[in-house]
Task: structure prediction
Amino acid sequence: VTGSGKTGLGIIYLEEALLAGLPTLILDPKGDMTNLMLTFPELRPADFEPWIDEGEARKEGKTPTELATEKAEQSTKGLGWWDQDGSRIRELRDSAGFTIYTPGSTAGVPLNIIGSLSAPAADWDQEAEALRDEIEGFVSGLLGLVEVEADPISSREHILLANLIENAWRQGRSLDMASLLAEIQRPPLRKLGVFELDTFFPEKDRLALAMKLNGLVASPAFSSWIDGPDLDIESLLWKDGKPQAAIVYLAHLSEEERQFIVTLILSKVITWMRSQAGTGDLRALVYMDEVFGFVPPTAEPPAKKPILTLLKQARAYGVGLLLSTQNPVDLDYKAMSNAGTWCIGRLQTERDKARILEALQSARGDTDVEQLDRTISGLEKRQFLLHNTHEPEPVLF
Result:
């Protein structure tokens, strides 16, 4: 909920993970998680001043220097309440590397999203399912960008593109957008399923699809989608043996572009994860600051499948998935029932509270719903109810 402290709680989880030597991949749809970079071990007003909003200072009748001094004192005092000081901030900065990635923009470090068409070094006999999921994520997101129906089962555009990419990857061939557009017009396949390709997807219709995708490639903004390092999960999580906080900033993108990036990144996380040995220990944490619209109860946006796959399978590979939302009523039940740890803050509506209570009761039948209802209704700002499915009672903190 707005003002409940959920983003602050998310930052605490991430800082503690990084201090423990765990890399984190942070998907930031709203642009709040860049605050992870604002760490000042000396806690000097001069460190805070460049980040002060002059408009906010004016509104409070202060100069930026005065407001910076106030913020520095506030931070020093706040840390003191918890018997901490700047040395712990320095420890965090020394423990991990921090990078803000801005796909589709050069404001931070851009990411070469289309480089994802490079043939992966993977064994198709062993990893066909994971590779197909990655292809599905890429194709669904790409078609979403040009507003083409992208159902993997019924959309002929999706079926064609997925087959073209799989065919190339099985031969060890990498693609780029130019070669993909050429193959749409002259596919190196004779049939799709039992139909001749020209019957299933006539040439003039394939040309129309190629033209749509070419319009995307021809737009001036497209060059920023192929700038920067390739999207490689291992490189995002580790650099020179040091755990990373890889913040993927998405606030500047349209809804379709966000879906594309989130789907693609999480599909790649799944492929990477399945190449790791199974473990009972946490080896990496994936965090999404606002999951509204990505895993809704009825619709099937492209990102929903990889999110549900991670919720079901990631823990076996030592990968944690932490999702945050102020709209529990807009979360798919399957997502909620696969969560082992819940932190419930102040809720905006009775519907949201009812949804949480219902999900908690279905997760464990012995829940005292009336008691939980009273506790949740009485939560204050920055106060949370921690519900762990392996513990007998929830804890207030």
User: Anything to note?
Assistant: The chain has a mean pLDDT of 90. The two ends are 16 Å apart (CA to CA).
